[in-house]
Specification:
It is built from 18 helices and 4 strands. It has 470 residues and is mostly helical. The chain has 2 domains: 1-88, no CATH class; 129-337 and 414-468, no CATH class. The strands form 2 sheets. A two-stranded antiparallel ribbon has the order 1-2. Strands 3-4 form a two-stranded antiparallel sheet. Helix 4 packs antiparallel against helix 16 (378-411) and helix 10 runs parallel beside helix 12 (251-267).
Length: 470
C-alpha cells in the first residue's frame, strides 16, 4: 500500500514538474498574441480525448486543460483590446443575448438547486463558450486568412477519416491502440442487419457523436469553400468528412446531414453576370448531386451493406419511432412536473458527478423521484433547468440570432463568402435541432460548443471582410 501511495505521489510530482513550466510557456505565447490561443484551442480539441484515454485511469480532469486555454485566450483578448483601445464587436442580437445571459445568471441562484456548484456547471454549459463568438468575429482581418484557416481545418477530415476506416475494419479486435480510443458504448444492436451490430466509431474523439458533429462542421465548411474555389484536396477532404459521418454509426448525424444538404442547396446561390441564381437551379449542381447519390447508394449496397441498411432505416426510426414515441412521450413526462423558473441552471447538465451532492441528486432524480429514465432532449432539459420562462427566453434568443444571421447572409449579396455563411448557418441550425429534439448532450459537449460559437462570430464578420477585400 505504501509503495502504491509513494508511486502515485511520485507520478503526480513528475506531471507537475512538466506541467507548471509548460503552463507558463503557453501563457506567455497566448498573452503575446491571443489568436495563437484560438489555434491552440482547436488543436487541443483534436488531441484532448486521445491524451485522456492514454493516461492511466482516463482522468476527466484533463478536460480542464481546455478551459485553462480558453481562460488564457479570453484574458489575452480583453487585454489586447484594452491596450490598443479597440472597440469590441457589439452584436446585432445584443438585447436578446443580454436577456439570455441575465436569466441564466439569475438561475444560478435558483432555490430549487441543491447548491451553487450546480449553478457553476450551468454557467459552463450555457455561457462559458459563448464569448468565443467575439473571438471568432475579431480573429480575421483579411478574407484570405479566413479561407486558409477554414481550408486547413477541413483538411483534418482526411486523417480523421483514415483512422475511422482502420477502426471500422478492426473495431472488435483487441488492438490496444484502438481499444484506448474506444467509447463507452462500442456498438448499436440492430436486428435488421445481418451482423446485428453496428460499431460506434469515434476516430480521435471520445464518442461517436462528438466525431460525427465535428465531421458535420468540416463537411459544411468544405461545401461552402468548394463554391468559392475548388481543389482536389478540398474535394477529398469534404467527401472524407461525409463518409466519416456515415461510418461513425451516428444515425442522428446522418439524418441531420442529409437535411442540411437540402437546406444548403435551397439557400445557397451562384453568381452569373453579376446576377444571383439559386444553387439548386444550376444544372452542374443537379448532375453532381445525382452522381453523388448513385455513388453513395452503390457504396451502401455493395460495400458497407449492413451500415447502409442501418443509416437508411434511420429515417424510419426518426419519423416513425423517435418522434412519436420518444419525443412526445418525453414531453408528456416533462410538462406535468415543470415549474415557471425550473430547478436551476446546471441541475440536469453533464458533469454533475464531479461536484458535491451531484451523485445524490442524480440518484434521487433517476431512481427515487421517477421510475422512468431522466429526460433526453434539450427542450425537456431547458424546461427542467430554466422552466417555462427559460424556455421562452432560450428560443427567443436563438430565433432572433438566426433572424440576424439571415440578414447578414442577404447583405453579402454576390460576395463569394455568401455560401460560406450559409454553410455555417446550416451547421448551427442543425446543432440546435440535434440539441432540442434528440440529445441534450449536444450543448453539453465542449468541442461542439467551442466550434459552434466561434464560427457564429466568424459569420457576423463576413460582410466586413467581403467589403474590405472587394
Amino acid at each position: 500500500m505504501e509503495l502504491t501511495k509513494f508511486s502515485l505521489i511520485k507520478m503526480i510530482n513528475e506531471y507537475l514538474f512538466i506541467a507548471i513550466p509548460l503552463f507558463f510557456l503557453i501563457a506567455a505565447v497566448i498573452f503575446r498574441r491571443w489568436r495563437t490561443g484560438v489555434v491552440l484551442i482547436f488543436i487541443w480539441l483534436l488531441v484532448e480525448d486521445v491524451i485522456r484515454r492514454l493516461i492511466p485511469g482516463q482522468p476527466g480532469q484533463i478536460m480542464l486543460v481546455k478551459d485553462i486555454l480558453i481562460l488564457l485566450t479570453y484574458s489575452s483578448f480583453l487585454a489586447t483590446m484594452a491596450i490598443k483601445d479597440k472597440k469590441i464587436w457589439r452584436p446585432s442580437f445584443i438585447i436578446s443575448l443580454l436577456l439570455f445571459i441575465g436569466f441564466v445568471l439569475i438561475e444560478v441562484f435558483n432555490y430549487n438547486a441543491p447548491n451553487l456548484f450546480f449553478g457553476a456547471i450551468g454557467l459552463r454549459h450555457y455561457l462559458w463558450y459563448l464569448p468565443l463568438a467575439f473571438l471568432g468575429y475579431h480573429m480575421f482581418d483579411d478574407k484570405e486568412k479566413l479561407l486558409k484557416f477554414c481550408r486547413i481545418l477541413v483538411y483534418a477530415a482526411i486523417p480523421l477519416f483514415a483512422l475511422i476506416i482502420f477502426q471500422y475494419l478492426f473495431w472488435d479486435s483487441n488492438i490496444v491502440f484502438l481499444r484506448s480510443l474506444s467509447t463507452g458504448h462500442q456498438f448499436h444492436n440492430f436486428t435488421l442487419v445481418e451482423s446485428e451490430k453496428i460499431p460506434l466509431l469515434s476516430s480521435v474523439f471520445g464518442s461517436a457523436h462528438r466525431y460525427a458533429r465535428f465531421s458535420m462542421l468540416l463537411f459544411f465548411l468544405g461545401v461552402g469553400l468548394l463554391t468559392i474555389k475548388k481543389s482536389k484536396i478540398l474535394i477529398i477532404s469534404t467527401i472524407s468528412a461525409f463518409l466519416g459521418i456515415i461510418l461513425s454509426g451516428s444515425r442522428s448525424a446522418f439524418v441531420l446531414t442529409i437535411m442540411g444538404i437540402v437546406l444548403f442547396i435551397i439557400s445557397a446561390v451562384y453568381v452569373k453576370n453579376n446576377k444571383i441564381f439559386s444553387l439548386w437551379r444550376n444544372s452542374r449542381v443537379k448532375a453532381s448531386l445525382l452522381v453523388s447519390i448513385l455513388a453513395l447508394a452503390g457504396l451502401m449496397v455493395f460495400i458497407i451493406s449492413d451500415l447502409g441498411i442501418f443509416q437508411i432505416t434511420a429515417f424510419y426510426y426518426a419519423f416513425q419511432e423517435r418522434i412519436p414515441s420518444m419525443m412526445f412521450k418525453e414531453f408528456n413526462r416533462t410538462f406535468p412536473e415543470a415549474k415557471l423558473f425550473g430547478n436551476g441552471a446546471g441541475t440536469m447538465s453533464q458533469g454533475l458527478d464531479y461536484i458535491p451532492g451531484g451523485l445524490d441528486w442524480i440518484r434521487y432524480q433517476t431512481q427515487e423521484l421517477r421510475t422512468d429514465s431522466w429526460f433526453e432532449n434539450g427542450v425537456s432539459k431547458i424546461i427542467f433547468e430554466l422552466g417555462f420562462a427559460g424556455l421562452i427566453i432560450f428560443y427567443f434568443f436563438w430565433g432572433y440570432l438566426f433572424y440576424r444571421t439571415k440578414k447578414e447572409i442577404k447583405k453579402l449579396n454576390i460576395s463569394p463568402l455568401r455560401n460560406l455563411a450559409v454553410a455555417i448557418s446550416t451547421f448551427s441550425f442543425l446543432m440546435l435541432i440535434w440539441f432540442s429534439f434528440l440529445h441534450h448532450q449536444t450543448f453539453g459537449d465542449a468541442t461542439t460548443l467551442a466550434t459552434l460559437w466561434f464560427f457564429i462570430g466568424v459569420l457576423f464578420n463576413l460582410n466586413k471582410l467581403a467589403t474590405s477585400t472587394a
